[in-house]
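agent: user wants the full assembly modeled, not chains individually. Plan: 1) parse entity lines 2) check alphabet per entity 3) run joint structure prediction 4) return tokens. Steps 1-2 passed, two entities, 1123 residues total. Proceeding.
--- entities ---
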Amino acid sequence: MVLSKYKKSAVDTKFKFSFPRFNWVLMLCMTLLLTVGVFFVKSATNMRTDSVHYLYVEMLVKWIPLGLIAHFAIALFDYRKLSERAWLLYALGIFLLLLVLIPGIGTARLGARRWIFGLFQPSEFMKLCIMPAAALLLGKYTGIKDRYRFAATLILFAIPMGLIAIQPDLGSSIVFAPVCLAMLFVSGCSPRLLLTLVLIGLIFVTLFLAVILVPDRMPEEKRAKIEQVTDNFIFPHWKKRVRVFVNPDHDPLGAGWNKKQSEIAVGSGGKYGKGYLNGTQNILGFLPRSVSSTDFIFSVIAEEMGFMGSCVLLILFGGVLGSIVVTGIFCGDAAGRLICAGVAALFFAHIFVNIAMTIGKMPITGIPLPFISYGGTFTISTMALLGLIQSVAIHSKSSQI
Amino acid sequence: MKNLVEKEAAASRIRLCIMGVILLLGVIYLLSCLYDIQVEQTRAFESAQEFHSLRRVRLPATRGKILDRNGIVLADNKPSYCVSIYLEEMRQKGAWTNTINYVAERMNEISKIVGVPCEVDKDGIWAHIRRRRAIPLVAFRGLDDVAVARLSENAQHMRGVDISVQAERVYPYGDFACHIIGYVGKGKPDNLEQELNPDGLEDFDAESLEYDFLLPDFVGKDGVEKSCNTALAGVGGGELIRINAVGYRHESYLGKQPELGKDVTLTIDLRLQKIAEQALEGVRGSIIVMDCETGEILVAASAPRYDLSKFVPTLSGSYWRELLNDPMRPLYGRACSGIYAPGSIFKPLVALSALREGVIDEQTHFFCSGRVDIGGRVFRCARRSGHGDINLRQAICGSCNPFFIYAGTKLNYEPHIYQDAFDVGFGQAPQLEIPCSKGVLPSSEWKRKRERDRWREGDTANISMGQGYLSVSPLQVAVYTAALANGGKVLRPRLVLPESGKIEESEVLRQMNWRSQDLRLVHLGMWDVVNSGWGTGRRALQEGVSLAAKTGTAEYMDKGEKKKNAWMIGFAPFNKPKYAIVTMQEDSDAGGLSAAALMKQMTQAIFLPETVNANIEEISDESENIVEINEVVPVDANINLELHPEQLSIEPILITEESIGVQTNSLDEVNNTELTSEELDDIYMAPEIYNQSDDVGQPNALHLLMPHGFIPPTQNTNEEGH
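--- prediction returned ---
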């Protein structure tokens, strides 16, 4: 169905009839998801009596309109022209990431310096900046030896990831990894190299887990000594989250609480849910109110709308991911395809990690759900990224498969 | 070449397809997980939610005690049973009014069962809902065992009702040292955020770590309870409570043990403080006893006081308003916060500065004619007839105004007197553990700003006698007295003993630039004040106590009326000073009378303990309980236990321009107008005095007031006790 439409539009150009090659499926999915988001941000904050109660209004009148402007501005701008200035954009992104580390400019909330003047998060902006740069590197500079090209790509990703990780915002930093992997894969990187990369990643994760979990089984004095050393490079709350993930009864008052209550919320939703605005876990505040509108919003939806609601939501997300991939497949040039691969991987990482976290299949990480979670910069950046995909859809050379 | 590009493009398309399939598989995996949780296992989760809800409850730590220096408990805790209502458990469908009505009904039922009226009404419930619903509403307090047993039998069908034991603050000595101890009120623990998020990292963690139910905790609102709140409060713990189908505590799991609050030991001596408070009964004033070697405050009594035991468990609105509207201002801790003109007790400082700078010396003789003209103003001596030819020692002893005006004006106020007064701590808030007033130490610049006028010689003359713009607190005076006694060491006053229980090393803030021979001279003058026959403070003379002192009487204007504050500073024993004592009485007669009487009582209490009965009574626990149950006062939600600055501020007793001329140091008064002089001292001066006759046999009203058998020094019949 989708494919036929694309074929049709390709044919249309032959008759000089310029049917806008806009990705309508993507547009539709995005609109529906944003609508769902507004409704459930309201539901998550409905019991609050302070200004938080009106977060959904803020979303509706501020962030979504700004996102739409960004979306259409980028969609109408030729992504190929953008790719030519990709380095400039990338440099700007890095500059902002450096800027946020300066105490006077970057605003910190409880130890994490993420906002520039409390207004926007440069880490979100970086997601938009890195796509054309990586696409340019991998898609255009084909003259260079593959090995160097791929090494350069790794460095390209490593710089912003490192800068974001020291904010510290490990969650946002890690979502760049699948993007890198996907773009390398689509650009035709040798499977051996990819495998090595994945292996290195796995070793890293295992080491990380081992450093946290192995000392737990050691005698107390030894453990304390090791803890002291590891505290220098792993944040204590990360250790806590990993321990909670492995052992749900660890810290039942603290980090274990969210996980447990979120699971109860999702599970008690059942097939059809408890009805809109009727989620008891949410109303009674078992889902911590501070995160129910952001990172744990899926629990609210799953509780109130049940499995049916989760299905609809996942289908909509599937539609977004599918149409991004399809746009990439029909794109005539390598840069466009790479951008689509990167964006799809990024969205997938967000969706997968967030939902898996709410049902206890992943450790808790502060990664929001695209289009649904409340967030300023995050909403704008996700919509802008889809704008980039629309730009690929509109401006790419028609090509036949 | 083109072919190659085409081939590469096709390959990348295939890879993109593969990626798409992988993503699709991921989404399908999520769906299958959700199916498992939401459809297959949903029963388990539903029951987990309905039958075994877990609640996080904060367990307040037991507050530390406040002890006196000998370990006697001044602020304690006692257990009390409370009935708390978890409003969220009682949430009814629809509007909040349904819930409120439902809760009010339940409360009535409980009230019948336990036989105690409920402490909250519907408005209270509503206020609770509006404000911080996460805290259980304490509806009944101070229940006895029988009531608790009856409630437990009947409470099966009551969801969301819980009996808890709460620590309640007790102040066993009622109004004892109330301004020092302070009081507690209910409040949000101030270190809650830190407690929840000890790592202090990332907003995500901290915000999500809210307790569902926060048991109310006490927070210090005044005095040491407030300033040492962090130590006293301890660190709250947490508890996970599993609630069964009827919403009753099913089992609990201690998440974190609360850490006990630390005890705070004061430097206050219960017996001495009690005697001081008894001495001040019925008057407004203050007594401070300070250890002049360590800076410990043994006594910091203020009068009048308020009853701390009425502040717990709940302060009634009527008592609070009564305190606020009392014209005697009992909420005002005069010892540390009251500021007054010092009067003649300032003279030793002027003498020391003048001696050091050489404008006078031991040999300086001055002829006091009873009056002195400065800048067109006439300043009078206490002794209208004048002291005649006197030297410094005699001038201190007789508190001769013209002598010090002479010394002060010759030296000039700035820089020397000002610098010395500043160094000894006037015009700055003492670094005590509780908030203190800083008083006023004028300077020419200060006057220019305030009065738009330059510093005049008359101002110097005034300040040389401790009058004028200068105002000081009794605590500052105590530090000053200690510095006079210990050879010029300005000590930091201490109210709280360190955990070791003993102050190892006194904290010397500054060393005054006073020469030891000058100090000796001033000490001798102060010795004469008490021990010579014509000293102004001879009424403080006590057999067996070697006291050196100085009296002062400062006049101030209160709503157009002239009033006097009586002061006396002293240190004892004379040869090796140990205690600096300051007594002050507001709206009084003369330093030599009322303040000297207070001084005598204090020296007796310190050095001759067997002669004074402290009469220390604890408020018995039972009587307090009866009061508590019989008159259950509705909690007035509008009571704000924090004192607002405007509530506290007694108009600083600043001498205004029009009153400068009529400042009087007790009997050593200074008048610029002849007219007012007669009205001044009518309380204790018989009109005959104004005859200015120096006859030895002249009847003197003061003689009647003096202790029986006291023979006035023949030479100075007219000298009044000062």
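agent: reporting back. Chain A touches chain B through 71 residues (CB under 8 Å). The beta strands of chain A are 106-109, 112-116.
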